[in-house]
């Protein structure tokens, strides 16, 4: 490859200096220089295009030596051994005694991540041992060796590692978590208090995904880290458990409880509404979404004109407008949406007919005669005496 590239580049002849050449030669030098430099620029451009090489993803490397792993029974941390979970009861990783032991290794995303066999299988879960930094399989692993992204969607009943969630959190807020609510906030305890504690916490936890909010209680050595994606919070919880920041502390990482702050609750409710609205926008056509949100001026004008149904000043609700539009589109009629012309219920009186002095008008009597076949008789209304009404509101029989 290098030989072909050097063969394409033409050899340029160095031009003599102006002091060594006469005036006639100096006048031709600029033309010679431009003629010689033009093919060299094109050759350099061709050379740059040849250097564009698509690199394949690198395979995931083993984080620990497989020969160093020993199949030994777990250390006794309780009085009863659970054969189903292959551990002593009460001796889990987040026990108040075992949580004070430092982790064996730490995951390095920049060096350890790569493709595995799980990349060929859609819907694969992430490797739990990769997050803890102790996976010996490398690219032969059946799980993903990378960070979760927004495109990695899982069933709400399981976490990103494929472990089943529970209906409620544990008393110590450890474990897998609950499927009753979406928790993206981690509680981080036992932080060594320094002047730059906020910068240290933000730097270490930003390795595992995009952080939305970080709150540090400096006096207590406690921090609350909120991620934009729940899967990144699950990954960070396992990756930072029993780890240390810039000092030799051993972190206590657990799930955070519900924030009692009303502003935080309103912010979470607004985020869920925006997330649901964004899902609806992606599912519907762009033109229809613009019309719904009122961003289409032509749609607003058409709705104002066609939606009045022939009634001046009437604006129909959205339910009536879209239901009528759906019926017209289904029928293939693209005419203006107008109310059908209906005959009046009461016909006008014939010309020359005098108005009757009864209770009903002459036009009403004419309509009733048409319905009854002409068998309607009218009587004149009783002429009132014009005197005042005496005892109008009395119910007594003596009156």
What can you tell me about this protein's structure?
The protein is an alpha+beta fold and 399 residues long. Among the domains are: 59-146, no CATH class; 164-283, 2-Layer Sandwich (Alpha-Beta Plaits); 288-338, no CATH class. Helices cover 32% and strands 7% of the residues. The protein contains 11 helices and 6 strands. The strands form 2 sheets. It has a 4-stranded antiparallel sheet with strand order 4-5-3-6, with helices on one face. Mean pLDDT is 75; it is low at 1-37.
Could you write a compact summary of the structure shown?
This protein is α+β, with helices and mostly antiparallel strands and 399 residues long. Helix content is 32%, strand content 7%.
Can you lay out the helices and strands and say which pair or pack?
Elements: H1 2-8, H2 23-50, E1 81-82, E2 87-88, H3 109-112, H4 128-132, E3 185-189, H5 197-205, E4 211-217, E5 222-227, H6 230-240, E6 252-255, H7 262-283, H8 286-292, H9 297-306, H10 318-331, H11 362-372
Antiparallel strand pairs: 1-2, 3-5, 3-6, 4-5
Name the descriptors.
single chain, mRNA processing, elongated, disordered N terminus, RBD_domain_sf, RNA-binding, metal-binding, 399 residues, two-stranded antiparallel ribbon, 11 helices, 6 strands, Alpha-Beta Plaits, alpha+beta
What structural category arises from helix and sheet content?
A: alpha+beta
Tell me the major beta sheet: 4 strands, antiparallel
CATH topology of the domain at 164-283: Alpha-Beta Plaits
Estimated helix fraction: 25-40%
Domain C3H1-type: 122-148
GO cellular component, one term: U2-type catalytic step 1 spliceosome
Region (Disordered): 1-76, 335-358, 375-399
Biased composition (Basic residues): 48-60
């Amino acid at each position: 490859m290098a030989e072909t590239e050097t063969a394409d580049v033409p050899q340029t002849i160095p031009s003599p200096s102006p002091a060594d050449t006469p005036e006639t030669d100096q006048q031709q030098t600029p033309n010679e220089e431009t003629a010689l430099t033009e093919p060299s620029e094109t050759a350099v451009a061709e050379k740059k295009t040849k250097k564009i090489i698509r690199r394949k993803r690198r395979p995931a490397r083993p984080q620990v030596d497989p020969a160093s792993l020993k199949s030994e029974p777990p250390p006794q941390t309780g009085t009863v051994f659970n054969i189903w979970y292959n551990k002593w009861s009460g001796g889990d990783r987040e026990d108040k005694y075992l949580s004070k032991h430092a982790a064996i290794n730490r995951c390095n995303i920049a060096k350890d991540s790569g493709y595995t066999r799980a990349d060929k299988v859609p819907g694969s879960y992430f490797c739990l041992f990769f997050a803890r930094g102790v996976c010996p399989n490398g690219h032969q692993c059946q799980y993903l060796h990378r960070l979760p992204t927004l495109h990695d969607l899982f069933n709400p009943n399981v976490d990103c590692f494929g472990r089943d969630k529970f209906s409620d959190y544990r008393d110590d807020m450890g474990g897998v978590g609950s499927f009753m609510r979406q928790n993206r906030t981690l509680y981080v305890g036992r932080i060594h208090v320094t002047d730059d504690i906020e910068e240290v916490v933000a730097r270490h936890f930003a390795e595992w995904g995009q952080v939305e909010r970080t709150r540090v209680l400096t006096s207590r050595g406690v921090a609350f880290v909120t991620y934009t994606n729940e899967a990144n919070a699950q990954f960070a919880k396992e990756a930072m458990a029993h780890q240390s920041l810039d000092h030799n502390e051993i972190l206590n990482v657990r799930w955070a409880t519900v924030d009692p702050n009303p502003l935080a609750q309103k912010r979470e409710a607004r985020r869920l509404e925006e997330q649901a609205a964004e899902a609806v926008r992606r599912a519907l056509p762009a033109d229809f979404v613009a019309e719904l949100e009122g961003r289409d001026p032509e749609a607003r004008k058409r709705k104002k004109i066609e939606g009045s149904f022939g009634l001046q000043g009437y604006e129909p609700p959205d339910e009536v407008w879209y239901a009528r539009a759906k019926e017209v589109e289904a029928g293939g009629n693209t005419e203006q949406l107008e109310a059908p012309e209906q005959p009046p219920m009461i016909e006008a009186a014939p010309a020359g007919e005098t108005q009757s002095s009864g209770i009903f008008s002459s036009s009403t009597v004419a309509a009733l005669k048409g319905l009854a076949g002409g068998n309607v008789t009218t009587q004149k209304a009783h002429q009132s005496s014009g005197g005042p009404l005496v005892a109008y509101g009395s119910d007594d029989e003596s009156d």
